[in-house]
Every structure is written in C-alpha cells, then in structure tokens.
C-alpha cells in the first residue's frame, strides 16, 4: 500500500517537499489526466491521496474516496489577501467555499490562512513554501566564487526576482527606488513581456535575464534587500529564498510570503500602492547595510526551518 500524490507538473519550490514525502512512502504522479484515477486506486490501495487545490483531480479523488476508503488531502496556495477577495476569480472563490468541507485535510502555507480555514472548516495543516536550508546553504557557499565575479558594485544591492508582468508591480518599485539610486545598486532578475518598457524606465539598473541554478544562487549571495511589490501574489517563493541567503526583504502585504517577515528583524511589509512608504522603508534598511560588505555565507533570516515544519506536517497527517 502506498500513499499517492498527484500534481500537474513538478514545481521547483516544492522539490524538497516532494523528496520528503517520497521518503515517507508517498508515490508521486506528475501529469495525470482526470478520469484515470479509479483504476490506479484499485491497483495501489492508497491510505492517503494528495491532490492539487480545488482541481478536477481533487473532485475525482473525492468521488472515489468512499469506494476505496482513503483520505483526501489537498494543497492550497491561497494567501490571506486572496481569501479577502483579491483572488483569481469567481470559480476559485466558489470552490474555496465548497470543496474544503469534503476534504480530510488541507495543506496551507500561511499561519493566518490556516487559522481562517480552521475557523470555517475545522481543518488545516501548516507547511510554508520553503526549500531545505540544509541543502540550499551548502549550495550558496559553493557558488561564492561566482558571486564574487558577478558583484556589480560596492554599493548595497536592491533586487527584484520574478516575471516582468503587470501584477508584479515593478514600475512602482522603480519609482520608489529613484531617490535611493546614489545609495544602492538596482538589479532586476527575470524576464517577461514588460522588459523593454522597464529597461527604458530604469536605464541604470542591471537586467540579468531569467536565471536559475547556480546563477540565481550566486545573486542571492549578493542581494542585500529583495523587494516583492506584487499587487496579487499567492505566495512568492523568492521571499524565502532571499531570506535563507541572508538578504532582508520588503514584501507587499498582498503576497502570501509576507507571513515570513518579522518587522524590525528581517524586513518589512508595505502597501503596494504606497511609493513613499516603500522608499522610506528601503532607506531604513539601507542604513543597516555597510558599503563593500564581505561576500560570505550570511545568517539564515527565515523564521522557520524546513526540517522542523515537514516533521510537524507529517506528524499531523499521520493522525488522520
């Protein structure tokens, strides 16, 4: 008997979660089409089935649950801002009000969202979207020579990491950064349809293009302040990645990853329409960053540790 996890495609920010579930005996299926689950359930006899949030696979698993006697556990990437109305449309809102009542468990990435689900549906596990710091910090240390080669300036580095699209609200960041450009160096890591317009707005900024692997890790060693100014963001895995590398963060209150921020310790949360507030907050953080700081492995600023969270999650799931 194996527990089963179904998802449309692997996502890099859940790599360590998938690995941990596999080590616990969960078999993972990628790219499974709705309508094909019943025969697999009959063959595998799972005790638990993990499914994507409010999807056709979720509904199919729920229809088969009584016949095969397993528990259905769903992932859900809702942020508190989405729950309050800034979500992806009426279908998602409708599903949020109906599907959780039938689930046996639901995995949520935010403590505040977990409390919302527990108050309304009496269920909710907590697992932030994190990589395993034991793996990532070894890789950050390994790419230090590349970081030294890439360093663009002795000034502190302020950076954005992500897609160049409207919801990311990058023009607001560029305007907010303008008064600070003598104090810091701006780097925009990513790509997308808005790139040409953004390059015109910020001719002095460095646009690296889309990065992954060692290239992205090397930049995380260089970033002093990572800014996520999104007007809509289910989570924002880049926040945890930056904090793990020791960067401080400025995160939109509309992003689910704002729950990782501890004001006065590892960054601040801001209103994505408040340019002056973002400028003031960045200025205050820059006061804490020395010019020409050594390039070395820094303190992990995440408030959670992957190993602790995954163990707590597995302990809770095993009570079902």
Task: Name its key features.
six-stranded parallel β-sheet, elongated, alpha/beta, 12 strands, 320 residues
Task: Describe the overall structure.
- With 320 residues, the protein is α/β, with parallel strands linked by helices.
- 40% of the residues lie in helices and 17% in strands.
- The chain has helices at residues 15-23, 37-44, 56-68, 80-83, 90-98, 111-121, 133-142, 144-150, 170-177, 195-201, 213-222, 237-244, 275-286, 306-317; strands at 3-7, 26-30, 48-51, 71-76, 105-108, 125-126, 157-161, 185-189, 206-209, 225-228, 248-252, 267-270.
- The strands form two sheets. It has a six-stranded parallel beta sheet. A six-stranded parallel beta sheet has the order 9-8-7-10-11-12, sandwiched between helices.
- α9 (170-177) links the parallel β7 (157-161) and β8.
- α2 packs across α3 (56-68), α8 packs across α11 (213-222) and α9 packs across α13 (275-286).
- It starts with a strand and ends with a helix.
Quick overview of this protein structure:
The protein has 14 helices and twelve strands. With 320 residues, the chain is α/β, with parallel strands linked by helices. The chain is elongated and about 65 Å long.
String of helices and strands: EHEHEHEHHEHEHHEHEHEHEHEEHH
Q: Which structural class do you get from the secondary structure elements?
A: alpha/beta
How does the overall form come out from the CA principal axes?
Answer: elongated
Kindly report the oligomeric state of this protein.
single chain
- Beta-strand share of residues: 15-25%
Question: Which spans of ≥5 residues are poorly predicted at pLDDT below 50?
Answer: none
Q: Please, how many helices?
A: 14
State the strand order across the main sheet.
2-1-3-4-5-6
**N-C termini distance:** 16 Å
Using only CA atoms, what is the Rg? 21 Å
Percent helix range? 40-55%
Q: How many E-type strands?
A: 12
Estimate the mean pLDDT confidence.
94
- What about the largest sheet? 6 strands, parallel
